[in-house]
Amino acid sequence: MSALAKNYNRRKIAFKRGRGSFLYSTKGKKYLDFVQGIAVNSLGHANPYLTKAMNKQAKKVWHVSNAFTIPESEKLAKRLTQKTFADYVIFQNSGVEATEAAIKAARRYFYSIGKPKKNRILCIKNSFHGRTLAAIFASGSKKMTEGFGPKVPGFDHFNFGDHKGLKKAITKNTAAIMIETAMGESGIKVIPDWCLRDLRKICNKKKILLILDEVQCGVGRSGKFFAFEYAKIKPDIVPIAKGIGGGFPIGAVLMNKKVAIAMTPGSHGSTFGGNPLAMSVGNAVLDQIFKKGFLKNVQKLSKHFISELNQIKEDYPEIIKEVRGIGLLIGLQLYNDQTKFIKKLEDNKLLTMKAAENVVRILPPLNVKKQEIDVAIKIIRKVCDKLN
Ligand SMILES: *Cc1c(COP(=O)(O)O)cnc(C)c1O
Known about the structure:
Blueprint: E1 15-19, E2 22-25, E3 30-33, H1 36-39, H2 48-58, H3 71-82, E4 88-92, H4 95-112, E5 120-124, H5 133-139, H6 142-145, E6 155-158, H7 163-169, E7 174-180, E8 182-183, E9 189-190, H8 193-206, E10 209-213, E11 237-240, E12 251-255, H9 257-260, H10 276-289, H11 294-315, E13 320-326, E14 329-334, H12 339-347, E15 350-351, E16 353-355, E17 359-362, H13 370-387
Parallel strand pairs: 3-15, 5-6, 5-7, 7-10
Antiparallel strand pairs: 1-2, 2-3, 4-12, 8-9, 11-12, 13-14, 14-17, 16-17
Helix pairs in contact: 2-10, 3-10, 11-13
The structure holds pyridoxal-5'-phosphate (PLP).
């Protein structure tokens, strides 16, 4: 009997090692892993470059308090700001800590300019920003908040795609709009570029902040470093996590200058956030992602993958409803519940993950090989054929 609480519906399968796009189970079977810890292992399993960077740092110093200067975190922050909209960074250890820090920063900004009543955050109903008390009430999902006591105040909601509702929901107390640039858990729903540009305009007009949660779609997953770069806009605050650590727990909130200056000494902190071990891995991840041609290749692989999936959709129109996605954040929306489909893929040695709206979520590592995508395509086609 497991001593682990039952808060997950775990699959039976366990793994003893991984390499690149593959996982090897304790029963000696080899799987193509297109979950990768849910968009976490951006460079695949046991990446030799990351292993080397981590081992090198492990022999020097693992952890020191943020009461001291940490050169590895200085370096990672500098690189994140040089390549993006951001001027300043606060490091955390997970996605939800990053989204919480984003909410705190937005509120603190209005506090710092003498408007403390502007503290409400406007989010999409049934979105996903993590599992702390604040984050579950930010998502406004009944399922996630049920049984967890009094509602955390300060969050308002509008429905996905309801532009009128969004404008109506902005009040004089709204501090920020917080959305995922591409919604992961909610079913791989990509916010179109024109929508993002509109959002930026609305925020400018209303003098409120734009928070884009790129915990899942950020750090190269979309084929650009940030998914919002396609829309050529600049948000004010961006929480990131998953991909930046390549499997090591790292979260961060990126901010522009006007927001960041509100985060004065003592206003926020994290014991582990930005420690030397984590930061050396984060820097190694960026070494790879910032390599010339790396993101262009993600875009190329994405185009190939999505066009092949659309071909399968045309061949099995009664099974597949829609192919969604951006970069290597891909969703296959089925007409029926996707659980059986995902199990069949697993039986054929392809690991995928579910998302809302009957979506099969497909998340290869960003350095996946074209041949590996082609193997996945074959398996997906085979499963469709058997179900037909
Ligand atoms: C996964 C995720 C989070 C939460 O990250 P954790 O590391 O699980 O806390 C927040 N926002 C988005 C968009 C995510 O995909």
